[in-house]
Amino acid sequence: MRQFIHRMKPVHAMYVGTILLMCMACVSKKTDNGIFYLLIGTYTSGGSTGIYVYRMDTEGGTAEYVSETPAVNPSYLAVSADERFVYSVGETESSTSAAHAFAFDKKTGVLTPLNTQPTNGEGPCYINTDKESRFVVTANYRGGNVSVFPLAENGMLETVHTVFSFEGTGPDSLRQEKPHLHCVLFSPDGQYLFAEDLGTDKIHKFTVSANAPFLTAGTPASFNLEPGSGPRHLTFHPNGKYAYLMNELSGKVTAFRYDGGNLQTLQYIASDTTAGVGGKGGADIHVSPDGKFLYTSNRLKSDGIAIFSINEKDGTLTAIAYQLTGIHPRNFNITPNGKFLLVGNRDTNNIQIFGIDQQTGLLTDTGNQILISSPVCLKFIHP
């Protein structure tokens, strides 16, 4: 396949790669010409400077560097429903851990910093905002808590209103000595928030309200998983009837039936089937836009993407294939048209582009890639 190349000039003598690209997505809105802005969050301990923006043709597979904005370890990004604002974590293991707000100019593709607020929890690794742009919430991994920030009308973060802390431990494991929050995800109807706790093998549930504190403990307050699971990322099926959880430590996917805020376990199925137990390194999880296939990324044991078919009648999964990738595929995403899957490989400093066979769900490496230091989060914004 022809490779489309765009060379990016170095910034502050730091490494910025050459781009050879095809496409990806996160926001479901789609244009007639398939043009989106691609936002890439990175770790900045190597050559990256912060958040990168590209203008991408998700139909033709071309890409063009637009801008970058300095930020410290913006390892996860969230986009407001109206796409005017972008929020990021500043993932550090110190009391200075923070969340950041940016305004996004769709005409220029440039992010403008608005403000920064401390999370009151170390190691924020996931950030999200509700559909009405009333508040932002972070999952603080090392802090073992969840922070809630009210939002001003201009998109700025107000000081933390509430910090939800948790108790308990998981099995006798180095990474389960205490709560470690790793994901905060809203239900499809926006009425609930689910917080995945790798440290205690729980999914905490909150009911969403219109006014501060915005979140209150749900009923039940949490859902238990298999001991040693290490829940990491959760996603919902497009039909809203099922949810799927990637468990980092066990390397399994948990399938749930979802109904009115309740998660009923349907199935546990291996994502990483390599030998050994624990510490498998399961990472991200996404359902194809047509709801036919589920994809998960796995690190540490066998870097790659596991592919499952989804039973349309009951939501259960069947493993159908495994696609090897670069090293440490922490985050990936699927284009809104379901044609391509984009994988950010943190340790090989590239984003691989795979074509998706929409009949079988199988992946084909196009040979196209973005070369960028430590890519760890991929989001799309309509121009």
Going across the biggest sheet, name each strand in turn: 1-2-29-28-27-26
What is the overall shape?
globular
Give the DSSP E fraction (strand runs of 2 or more residues).
over 45%
Number of strands: 30
Do you know the CATH architecture? Answer: 7 Propeller
Supply the number of helical segments: 0
- Number of spatially distinct domains: 1
> CATH topology, what is it called?
Methylamine Dehydrogenase, Chain H
Structural class: mainly beta
Q: What's the alpha carbon Rg, rounded to whole Å?
A: 19 Å
Distance between the termini: 27 Å
Q: Quick one: CATH class?
A: Mainly Beta
Structural description of this entry:
This protein has 383 residues and is mainly β. The chain has one domain (5-381): Methylamine Dehydrogenase, Chain H (7 Propeller). It contains no helices and 30 strands. The strands form 7 sheets. A 6-stranded antiparallel beta sheet has the order 1-2-29-28-27-26, with no helix packed on it. The chain starts with a strand and ends with a strand.
